[in-house]
């Protein structure tokens, strides 16, 4: 797990909320605090959809909402003359991208124990911090998946021209 402080807040917020830069992620949960507190549970409620829609993997391929679908709602809550008091988003890398990252490491049969690569975005009223994380189905002694994810995150930030400092 690594923490990165974002150096250019305006550039980062544009990338997060107004571009497709983070569209490789799912939204697990979010909290936005302005004049009110807005909490988002990113779990897809499959019962909302018809039986046919539930069976169509292209309509509901994941257990969580796509960030690209939730991004406009979050933007509407955040935009305005006043900045939010704080916000937090827990993003999960889409499984197909996760598999490519895991394929880059040699850590035995532990790959099936890695449930998700997480990226937590926290704004405290003045700074944004990104925190990488790993969700597993069991304890892993091997830190290779975590290291692969940390490396992939740095590559992602640099490719998207997001300025950062390690905390």
SSE order and pairing:
Elements: E1 3-6, H1 9-18, E2 25-33, E3 37-41, H2 51-55, E4 65-66, H3 67-78, E5 86-93, H4 95-103, E6 114-123, E7 128-136, H5 144-159, E8 164-166
Antiparallel strand pairs: 1-7, 1-8, 2-3, 2-4, 2-5, 5-6, 6-7
Would you mind describing this structure in some detail?
- The protein has 167 residues and is α+β, with helices and mostly antiparallel strands.
- It has one domain.
- 31% of the residues lie in helices and 30% in strands.
- Strand 2 and strand 3 form a beta hairpin.
- The chain is globular and about 45 Å long.
- The termini are close together.
- 22% of the residues are buried.
- The mean pLDDT is 92.
């Amino acid at each position: 797990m690594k923490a990165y402080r974002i150096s250019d807040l305006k550039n980062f917020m544009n990338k997060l909320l107004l571009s497709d830069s983070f569209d490789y992620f799912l939204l697990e949960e979010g909290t936005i605090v302005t004049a009110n507190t807005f909490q988002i549970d990113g779990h897809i409620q499959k019962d909302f959809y018809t039986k046919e829609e539930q069976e169509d993997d292209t309509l509901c391929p994941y257990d969580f909402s796509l960030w690209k679908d939730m991004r406009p709602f979050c933007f509407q809550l955040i935009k305005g003359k006043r900045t939010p008091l704080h916000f937090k988003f827990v993003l999960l890398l889409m499984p197909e991208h996760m598999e490519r990252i895991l394929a880059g490491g040699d850590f035995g049969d532990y790959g099936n124990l890695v449930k998700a690569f997480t990226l937590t975005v926290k704004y405290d009223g003045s700074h944004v911090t990104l925190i990488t994380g790993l969700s597993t189905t069991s304890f892993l002694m091997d830190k290779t998946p975590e290291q692969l994810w940390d490396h992939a995150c740095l590559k992602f930030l640099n490719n998207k021209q997001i300025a950062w400092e390690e905390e």
